[in-house]
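Example record

Each entry pairs one chain with its bound ligand, flavin-adenine dinucleotide.
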Amino acid sequence: MNFLKYDVAIIGGGCSGLMTATAIVKNNPKLKVVLIEKNAKVGRKLLATGNGRCNLSNEHISPEFYFGSCAKHLHNVWEQYNCDFIRKYFSDLGLLTVSDNEGRIYPVSNSASSVLECMRNYYHYFGNVDELCNTVVKTIKSGYLLECIRTDNDTVRISAKYVVLACGGKSSPKLSTDGLGYDLLNSLYIRTSVLFPSLVPITCNDKLLNLLKGVRIKGNVSLMIDGNIVARHNGEIQFTEKALSGICVFQLSRLVNEYFMSKKQTDIKIALDILPQFSKQECKAFLVSRVQHFGKYTLDNLFDGLLQKKIALALYRKCGITDLNRKSATLNKKEIQLLSDTLKQWEFIPTSASSFENAQITAGGIISSEIDFTKMESVRYKHLYFGGEIIDIDGLCGGYNLHWAWCSGIIVARAIGG
Ligand SMILES: Cc1cc2nc3c(=O)[nH]c(=O)nc-3n(C[C@H](O)[C@H](O)[C@H](O)COP(=O)(O)OP(=O)(O)OC[C@H]3O[C@@H](n4cnc5c(N)ncnc54)[C@H](O)[C@@H]3O)c2cc1C
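Structure tokens for the complex follow.
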């Protein structure tokens, strides 16, 4: 049994915990800080973000892109801790960033490891931060005294004046975030809202997915409930064996999962518009003229040059057209109408809520009434702070969630001051 004494103990060496440690060093390098991490190394999930490129913020940070009970308390936060602030903050740590044409911010190096390195370098060179990896915090006792277990089964006790809970959520447990932080919250009677996965592929029951798997196309995706469009996003749609995927699909997944949790019996559909550059009328006119021009072609070749082969094949199947050796000129008015309608509104039925397995984020978490938002401090326990995904706030895909992980870490560090 080891006994260690620190000023600040940060539970979770993920995105928010790393930033908390860095920001504490910026404010007061003398504070003795320990970053306690279950994994063998800190920042495991950070390295996986943005497909290894780390989409660390977004030029369009705004309350409307955040959800959960805490989102409405953060209007003022986004004014102060906006995208320029975060870019400048990272630039002071030595990390240069660029934005893409959709306002997403990435490191100039195009590598998530640069983000990790700049924080670790900073706190190792300028501060007094120890990383204690392969260590799980099991209990938090008042005082504060943390009881930890190391992977070699050794136990460690850590005393600290300030404790930061930055344990992440339950999303992507393969990256070792399996919701341990919620056990700690339960033991402290800190309330959380219902947890569910967000930013995740949407499972659909459709035989055509078998044919379409592996295909990627650009288009619009709409969530329709009872025939009304409730949300729409544009981007790359990816087909997998059992699900629709891609960032634009992820953006709808929170609403789809909420729908299934509500056990509503209403009608739910995902509609793809795979020719968004044409209006409905233009699409039909275009198809009519294509049939006139290429009437001699077999149906198998009618869409060559316009659609990927697998998409064309699935489109015909969806419309019940089976003989692809027919001449295009034989398409009747009804078939042309159906093909053109399907190109503009190709419907898939989501079948179930998605699991946490492939989710990027956990919706739900510590509810707003448990938090003093000026400091991200617990209202029940003085000097106990929260950061990142463990809180009941989640954002759209596009750098919004990491932006929150950084900002909450900086707010905590400023509150701890010194
Ligand atoms: C594949 C993927 C890609 C993503 N890409 C992006 C992106 O490009 N842009 C974006 O904005 N967001 C992205 N996200 C979301 C983003 O990763 C999260 O918002 C962010 O990691 C949350 O930071 P956090 O510090 O709260 O949690 P995490 O980064 O998950 O860190 C929590 C850490 O706490 C540790 N821990 C938990 N409990 C304990 C305990 N009891 N004792 C010790 N250690 C503990 C865990 O091991 C973990 O390392 C992505 C998520 C995934 C899964």
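The mean pLDDT is 96.
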